[in-house]
What does this fold into?
Amino acid sequence: MNFSALDLSADNRLLFKANSAGSGAAAQSALFIARLPDPALQQLSSFPEKMDLIDNGRMLQIRNAFGCSRLPISGGLPRQIPGFPSFAGGSPASSGRVEDMAVSADGRFLLYIDPVSAAYGNLVMLDASSGAKITVALHVERPDRIFPASWSPDSRVFVYARGGKLYYYTVNPASAPVDEKFRFIGEGTVNSVYWGRGGDFFYLRASTIYRVRAAELFARALYAGFLEIGTVAGKIPFEFSPGFDSFWIAPDARSLILSKGGRNIFYIPLDFDDYEGSGDASLPYLAVPRACLSLQVLWPSGGAITILASLPAQKTGEPPTLAWRLQGHAFVPLSAPLGSSASLSPDGTKALAWGSGGIALYDYINWKILDTISTRPAYSCVWIGNDDFAIGDDQRIERIRLGSGNSASTAGIARRDLICLSQISRFGFEDKVSGDAQPRILAQNGSSWYTTDCRSPWAEIPNPQLRAVSQVSSRYRVYLDRQSGGPYENLPMIRNIASVGTASLLPVTDRQGGLRELGLCFDLYDDAEGLPEALDALNRFGIKATFFLGGEFIRRYPAAAADIVASGHETASLFFAPIDLSDARYRIGSDFISRGLARNEDEFYRATGSELALLWHPPYYAASPEVSSAAAQAGYTTIVRSIDPLDWVSREDEIRFSLPQYSASDMVDRIMEAKKPGALVPIRLGLLPGGRVDYLFNRLNVLLDALMQEGYTVVKVSTLLEHGKE
It folds into this structure.
C-alpha cells in the first residue's frame, strides 16, 4: 500500500489518497482527511468491494481494504463501526485479501475472526452500536471462501463451525447455555446448514436432511448428548461431503439443489425415497465444466430455477459465467449473463447481474436484458425493494429506482441518486470562500465534480474552483517518506515548522526488510481437483508459481495443462508415471530416467504446444544421488522440498503407517512456522486415493494471505534458484 497527492490547507487540514495494490483483493483507493495536529483520520470515499444491506434497508455496510464502514442508504460519508479494527481508526490497512465477516440482518451485530495465528482465530461478536465484544468461541478457522458462521434471518441466533463440528449461539445469552458442549448441533461445516425464510434452518448430514427450529435448540440443550437434532425433512441419494458439496433449499422447502464437488448438480424433491423407489428416479442432472470456480442458484418462490457457474478468466470473447434454467426434467442453457454475480429481486421478477463488464437489469422470467445500469467494473449490488436497488462500481455507490407500476418487461430507471463516491481521480480544497467558512473538499469522479464539507454527503457541482495544491502551511510541512519494509511503501510525514519535530501521520509497523522470497510449487499426479481454485487464487494475488505435471495428469487433462501455460505459470516435470523411484523393484538407470523425462516432454508438447522447464522432482520426492545424477545427464535440475506440509498423508496412511494427518489449517500454521527466505513449499493438488477430510489446497487463500502479511514474495522455482546463485 502507498500514499499519494498530499494537499495541506491553510487551516492545517491534510488531504491524501491511500492506494491498495490489491494482493488477493481488488485494486482500490480511498480519500482521507486529517486535522493536524490530531492524527485521527476521516474517510471520505468507500470502495464497494463487498456490500450488505442492513437495518431494514436503511443502511449499507461496506467492506474493503481499509476496513468496514456504513453508509445511510439516503446518502452520506463512511461511518466507522465502534470497536471494529479499521485504517481510519488506527489499524494497519489490509495488504492482502479482505477477510470475510457476517453481519446480522438488523445490523446490530458483527461476527468476525480475531486472528491468533495464520490459520486460526477467535470468533468475536461485536455490538455495532456500543463496540462491546463477546468472544463466542476459541480456535476457529479463519475464513477462506466462506465465513464459518451464518446468521438467522431474524438476527436472533447464528450457527458456527469449529473443528468439524457445528454449534449455535444466541444474541440473548440468557436463552442458551454458556458451555459450548450444550450448544452442539452435529458434525459438519457451515456448508452443512441452509437458513429457510421462516427462521428455521436445514442441516444436511450424511444423506439425511433435518429441519431445525430455533426454539428447539434451546429446549434441547440439556439433552444434546442423545437427542436427535430437528425433524427429518428428507433424504438425498448420496453421502454429503461438507468440504466439497453444497445445497440450496427451495423457498417452499419441498425440494433442494445439490452440488456434488462443485460440478455435478442435482434437483432432488425432499419426498424422494431411495429405499422403496417411490420417488422419481430420473432426477434432473447438470454437469458444469470442471474449471467452475463457484456456483449460484437463483430460486424465486413459485418460479424457475437458474444455475450460474463462474469460470476462470477466459479468452477474449468467451463468457466468464454460464447459465442454465431448469425446465421440466432438464437443465436448459441460457444466454451468458453480463457478469459473474447475480441477485434476484424480492418478488423474483427481475435480476441484477454484474461483473467487470458492468451491471445489467434482467427480466428474470424471460432472461432478457431490460437495461444496462453501468458499463464500468462493478463489485456489489443489493436489492432494497422490488423496484429499488443499490449498486457499487469503481466510481460511485448509487441508489437506483425503477419506474413505478411498470411490469418486469418494461421496467426503466426513474431516478438515480448518489450514496457515496467509490474512488476519486482528482481532489483538493475549494479556492475561494466567503467569511470565516472553511474551504470545502472538491473531488473529481469520472467527468463530474463533487463537494462536501466533511459532514454532508457528496453533492455534484457544475464549476469547481480548485485551490493550488500545497504541502506547506504556516505551521506544518508535509512530505512522503519511502519505507524499506513494513506494510507501506511510503508514509505521510508531518514536520512542525513552528517549533521542532517530525513524526509520521500513521503508526509505524515493524517488519523485517530485505529480500524475502519463497518458492511455491504445485504437484499434479493424476487428478485436477483444486486446480481451478489454485489458478484463481494465484491470479488474484498476482503470483506466478511452478506446476510439476505428471504424465498421467497430462494425458487425462490436456486442456487443464494448457490452462496452466496460458496463465503464465512455470511448468516442470513430475516424470511420465507416478513411480516410486526408491522402490527396490525398479532398476533405475540413467537411460530409464532420461526416457521417462523425454516422454513427459513429448506428451506435454502435444497437449500444449509448449515445452517443460528443465526442472523436475521424482514422484513423491523420492530422490537419491543416483536419480539426481541421471536427471542431470538429461539436462534437468532436481528440486528438493525444504518444507513438507504432509498434505499427501491420507486416512489410509494414518491407519496403516501411523503417520500424522494434520488438518489443512494446521498445515498452514506449520508452513508459516517453518518458512524462511529461500524455502520451497510444495502443495499437492488432486484427491488422494486413501481419502482425506480436508485438503491444503482448500486453504490456499489463507496461506497466501499469511505470507503476504509477513512481507514474503512468492516466486517461481526457477526464480528462487537464480536468486540463490547471486
Q: What stands out?
A: Residues 716 and 722 are 10 Å apart (CA to CA). The mean pLDDT is 90.
